[in-house]
TrEMBL record:
This is TRAP transporter small permease protein. The lineage of its organism: Bacteria, Pseudomonadati, Pseudomonadota, Gammaproteobacteria, Vibrionales. It comes from the Bacteria. It comes from Salinivibrio kushneri. The chain crosses the membrane at residues 30-52, 58-80, 101-122, 151-173. GO terms for cellular component: plasma membrane.
Amino acid sequence: MTEQTPHTPPEPDEHPRNVLDRAIIKVSHLLSWLFIATVFISFYEVVMRYLFDSPTTWVHETASFIGGSLFIIGGIYAFAANRHVRVVLIYDAVSSQTRKYLNLVHHLVGLAFASMLAYSSYSLAKEAWFAPWGELRLETSGSVLNAPYPALLKGLIFIALCILVIQFVLHLIQELMGLRNKDDV
């Protein structure tokens, strides 16, 4: 009788797959320092409000904008670093060849979904950036600060989704090349 070894799940790929992934990871690491800036400006707000009884009008919206922007970028970072969510119950239980086909399905479905989201986000960003007559007019928050953060976030969502579509295309090409190379052997 042969002794069976328990199946060990695959380790996530630690290396970016292409130049775009490398750039996203590098830029994301730099932008992650903005989380610290958010902590500092939030601390500033607490000090001003509770020690000097002089609350700010800009900290809450600015901190929310920075945090929201970083979370949007976090989506393309997770995909670039291969840290996205997958159903490991199925993925880890199948052979490496089957994983390649699951990756192919994942990239096809993801490409379709990201493309539809990018298309939808375009109309939201366009409405947030331009008046109905075509003049540039950024949507603002409507608060005392009245910053153009809503328009900037909608534009960032559109850009991030366009990048995600490109990522899916590049990853799909790599998956197809990997299948072709395996089938040729």
